[in-house]
Design brief:
The chain has a 7-stranded antiparallel β-sheet with strand order 4-3-7-1-2-6-5. It has a 6-stranded mixed β-sheet with strand order 11-10-9-8-13-12, with no helix packed on it. By secondary structure, the protein is mainly β. Helix content is 5%, strand content 30%.
C-alpha cells in the first residue's frame, strides 16, 4: 500500500465532470493530468466523490465603526400601574419552537463503472446507471477519483496535482505568499493559483526552478522570488 501523507487522502481525484455529453447519459470529464488522460479508464476501481463546496475568496471585512453612545433623557417620574383588567378572550399558548434538524450525514465516495474514450480536454465517459442527459447534467462539477493504493509509486520529484491543492506557499526568504487555491493547465506546464488571505492571486508556473521545494508532510512549498514573477505581493522588493 502506498504510504499516506497528511495531505494525501486515500482517494485521489483524477478528473472533474464539466458537462453532459449527448443525450444518452455520457459526461465530459476534464482530467487533471493531460499527459495521462487514460488513468480513469485503466484504474481497477473508480469512485464518484460527494459534492464539495468550493471555497470563495472574499475581500477582508471592513472594520466597523463603534456605535455612538445614546444620549440619556431627563428622568421621568414613575407612573402608577392601573388595576389589572381581566380579559374575556382566551389566551393562546405560546408556540413551541421546532426541534433542530439532525445534521446531514456526509456522503461516501460511490464506486462506479465507467467506459469511454479520450477527448482533447480529457475524456468522454459513460457511467453505468446514468442513462439520460438530465442525470448526467446533475453530476456537473463532481470529481472522479481512484484509490491511491491502486496507483504506481511516483518517482522522486513527482507529485499528484491533487496533493498540491491547499499547500501553503512561501518565498525563498521565508515570507508568506498564500495558499494553492487552484491549478491551471493552459499549456504543457502546470500553473499554480496562489491566493493570500485578502484574495489577491499570483499565477506561478510549476517548474523546478520556480518552485524548488515541495514538502507534502509539512503542507508547504517554496516559490523563487524572481523579478516580474510575483505581481501581487505588497512587500515585494
Amino acid at each position: 500500500m502506498t504510504p499516506q501523507t497528511p495531505n494525501s487522502p486515500a482517494y485521489l481525484p483524477l478528473g472533474r465532470i464539466i458537462r453532459a455529453h449527448g443525450v444518452h447519459g455520457a459526461v465530459a470529464v476534464l482530467v487533471h493530468n493531460l499527459e495521462n488522460p487514460e488513468g480513469l479508464l485503466k484504474a481497477p476501481k473508480v469512485f464518484l466523490l460527494p459534492p464539495q463546496a468550493r471555497p470563495e475568496l472574499k475581500d477582508p471585512k471592513k472594520p466597523q465603526k463603534p456605535k455612538k453612545p445614546q444620549k440619556l433623557k431627563e428622568p421621568v417620574a414613575p407612573v402608577e400601574s392601573p388595576e389589572p383588567i381581566e380579559s374575556k378572550e382566551p389566551v393562546e399558548a405560546p408556540e413551541v419552537p421546532a426541534a433542530p434538524e439532525a445534521p446531514a450525514v456526509p456522503e461516501a465516495p460511490q464506486p462506479i463503472k465507467v467506459t469511454g474514450k479520450i477527448a482533447p480536454y480529457g475524456l468522454i465517459l459513460k457511467i453505468a446507471g446514468v442513462t439520460t442527459r438530465e442525470k448526467a447534467a446533475a453530476l456537473k462539477n463532481r470529481e472522479l477519483a481512484v484509490l491511491r493504493e491502486d496507483l504506481p509509486p511516483l518517482a522522486e520529484g513527482e507529485y499528484y496535482q491533487a496533493d498540491l491543492l491547499g499547500l501553503a506557499a512561501y518565498l525563498t526568504d521565508g515570507r508568506y505568499l498564500g495558499q494553492v487555491k487552484g491549478l491551471l493547465t493552459p499549456s504543457d506546464t502546470l500553473v499554480l493559483v496562489i491566493a493570500d488571505d485578502r484574495g489577491v492571486e499570483n499565477l506561478i508556473p510549476f517548474t523546478e526552478d520556480l518552485v524548488p521545494e515541495v514538502n507534502l508532510a509539512a503542507k508547504k512549498l517554496v516559490v523563487e522570488n524572481r523579478p516580474g514573477l510575483i505581481q501581487n505581493f505588497p512587500d515585494s522588493p
